[in-house]
Design brief:
alpha/beta, two-stranded antiparallel ribbon
Amino acid sequence: MRSVTGRLMLLDTASLYFRAYFGVPDSVRAPDGSPVNAVRGLLDFIDRLVKDHHPDDLVACMDADWRPAWRVELIPSYKAHRVAEERPSGPDEEEVPDTLSPQVPVIEAVLDAVGIARVGVPAYEADDVIGTFTARARGPVDIVTGDRDLYQLVDDARGVRVLYPLKGVGTLQITDEAVLREKYGVGGSGYADLALLRGDPSDGLPGVPGVGEKTAAKLLAEFGDLAGILAAVGDPQAGLTPTQRRRLTEAGPYLAVAPKVVRVADDVPLPEVVTALPRTPRDPEAVRELAARWGLGGSLQRLLATLAR
């Protein structure tokens, strides 16, 4: 990957097309009657993001494996409740609405034809792809996601922020360290420790029983980070209550593996891709065919016009 020095925008693509799917009526359909609400909604999202935030580089980051085996090996409950079908080889199948699954290949084909870089890496989630692009960037980074896990990447010193959709993408929470400290009592570097201590039922992470968000924030404020908290568990003079010491001790096996599961990877083997914002479609003929086949109409035309500016 070439060194990206301009403003890099990273899309948590699945997070955004899920939001598009539920935010755009399923009456939005192709000429043959197939639903294309997620496709058109995502194109409208990208159009608005480019107009409002003017990235120099743009990458649609994908889940090549939404539930990597190496994470499941460490915490078997990780995303287990979202498995539709277990597969002995390859990623398990995720539970996805019936009318959304057929739209994902269309989304991928349109992004490729337009020329927007699309990156997924086997055995890694989109979060890990985002973490690695962020680590390698030499300029400011905007991460667009509805997943709070990526708050851990927020870094004011490097210009890394999360654009969190509150309503569509027209209303975004621009998440920097001040926002995180106000809401959670930690900065970006402390968010992963907060998340693993409190747990996250939506990801199948149990957390430490009895330690909620406020208690986790207080522990991190007092002891600095997870390593400091664990050191305090072994120090009789540290300011832990007997109940906190017992709960943290009992959660020792979980706390030993949770950091690797919760923290996004920053060393994913990324492919060589052109991340520069495309000004003209990479494959104009494919764009025309996809627009006609799926009735993408104004959504695709607006995006192409915005990219051409």
